[in-house]
């Protein structure tokens, strides 16, 4: 069952945010459901079709939004005092780094997308209007 799997994950990796998310984390979950998830099929279409320069601005917005939320999550993992949490959280530096490693790809992939959108000449090209 999915709830059992979630409980096992939260226990194994000491991630209390999954079992009892803080209010700010819930806000990020809603953003993911209503902003990020709808972006995926649009982006998949644009990248699979190729040549879709219009994806640049939505991809920049998506990647900066996700990176911003992940910075807050990673900071929480590194610096929050989990000793008062109802569910077991990371206590040692090693436990914090293990949990951090679970979330880190969710930061790295959007940063790679942002880098691609900003630096790849295909997406940087701006068409000039022809003068009559």
UniProtKB/TrEMBL annotation:
<keyword id="KW-1133">Transmembrane helix</keyword>
<dbReference type="Pfam" id="PF05241">
    <property type="entry name" value="EBP"/>
</dbReference>
<feature type="transmembrane region" description="Helical">
    <location>
        <begin position="60"/>
        <end position="79"/>
    </location>
</feature>
<feature type="domain" description="EXPERA">
    <location>
        <begin position="1"/>
        <end position="114"/>
    </location>
</feature>
<dbReference type="InterPro" id="IPR033118">
    <property type="entry name" value="EXPERA"/>
</dbReference>
<keyword id="KW-0812">Transmembrane</keyword>
<comment type="similarity">
    <text>Belongs to the TMEM97/sigma-2 receptor family.</text>
</comment>
<dbReference type="InterPro" id="IPR016964">
    <property type="entry name" value="Sigma2_recept"/>
</dbReference>
<protein>
    <recommendedName>
        <fullName>Sigma intracellular receptor 2</fullName>
    </recommendedName>
</protein>
<feature type="transmembrane region" description="Helical">
    <location>
        <begin position="99"/>
        <end position="123"/>
    </location>
</feature>
<keyword id="KW-0256">Endoplasmic reticulum</keyword>
<dbReference type="InterPro" id="IPR051987">
    <property type="entry name" value="Sigma-2_receptor-like"/>
</dbReference>
<dbReference type="GO" id="GO:0030867">
    <property type="term" value="C:rough endoplasmic reticulum membrane"/>
</dbReference>
<keyword id="KW-0472">Membrane</keyword>
<feature type="transmembrane region" description="Helical">
    <location>
        <begin position="27"/>
        <end position="48"/>
    </location>
</feature>
């Amino acid at each position: 069952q999915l709830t059992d799997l979630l409980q096992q994950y939260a226990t194994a990796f000491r991630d209390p945010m999954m079992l009892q998310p803080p209010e700010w984390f819930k806000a990020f979950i809603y953003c993911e459901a209503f902003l990020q998830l709808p972006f995926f099929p649009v982006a998949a279409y644009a990248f699979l079709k190729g040549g879709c320069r219009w994806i640049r601005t939505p991809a920049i917005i998506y990647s900066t939004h996700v990176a911003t939320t992940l910075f807050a999550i990673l900071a929480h993992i590194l610096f929050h005092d989990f000793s008062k949490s109802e569910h077991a959280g990371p206590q040692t530096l090693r436990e914090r780094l293990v949990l951090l490693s679970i979330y880190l790809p969710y930061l790295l992939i959007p940063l790679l997308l942002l880098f691609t959108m900003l630096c790849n000449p295909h997406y940087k090209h701006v068409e000039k209007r022809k003068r009559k």
